[in-house]
Amino acid sequence: MCLAELLKYELMDSGFHVSYFRSGRKAFQKLKTSPPDAIVLDILLEEGEMDGSTILRELKRSTDLNEIPVLYRPHLSKGRREFPWVPKII
Fold first, then answer.
1. What is the C-alpha separation between 82 and 17, in angstroms, rounded?
2. Cα gap 84→61, rounded to integer Å
3. What is the DSSP letter of 32?
4. What does the H/E/C string look like for 42-81?
5. Backbone phi, then psi, for 72, in 5-degree steps?
6. Is 83 exposed, middle or buried (0-12, 13-18, 19+ CB in 10 A)?
7. If DSSP codes are grouped into helix, strand and coil, which group holds residue 12?
8. Tens-binned pLDDT, residue by residue, of the chain (90 aa)
9. What whole-number distance in Å separates Cα of residue 65 and Cα of residue 4?
10. CA-based radius of gyration for the chain
11. Is the dihedral of CA 87, 43, 27, 6 positive or negative?
């Protein structure tokens, strides 16, 4: 299990509704149809041609989505153990 999945389960156990995507394109499509209250975004996504940097750029360009808080963390899905890691809130 990767760090992103662990974070997903931790958030769910804390009472949050969580949508988890491995594909950047699928994630961005979901964001457009059902905007969340906040986003935890990994710079690297395992599948698809839309990475986290592209999603972040498109979010900030969108007048409908640019106010959503984003917790941006490089390498969550790659399982790297870089502790302590410092996420960026954008």
1. 27
2. 31
3. H
4. ECCCCECCCCHHHHHHHHHHCCCCCCCCEEEECCCCCCCC
5. -105, 120
6. exposed
7. helix
8. 577 788 889 989 999 999 888 788 888 888 889 989 888 887 776 555 787 788 888 888 999 899 999 887 765 555 555 444 445 554
9. 22
10. 13
11. negative
Q: What is the pTM of this model?
A: 0.71
Residues 6+ apart with CB under 8 A from 46: 22, 77
In degrees rounded to 5, what are phi and psi of residue 32? -70, -35
Are 39 and 30 spatial neighbours (Cβ–Cβ below 8 Å)? no
Compute the distance between CA of residue 28 and CA of residue 61 in angstroms, rounded to an integer.
Answer: 13
Peptide bond into 36 cis (omega under 30): no
Spatial distance between the Cα atoms of 61 and 26, rounded to a whole number of angstroms? 18
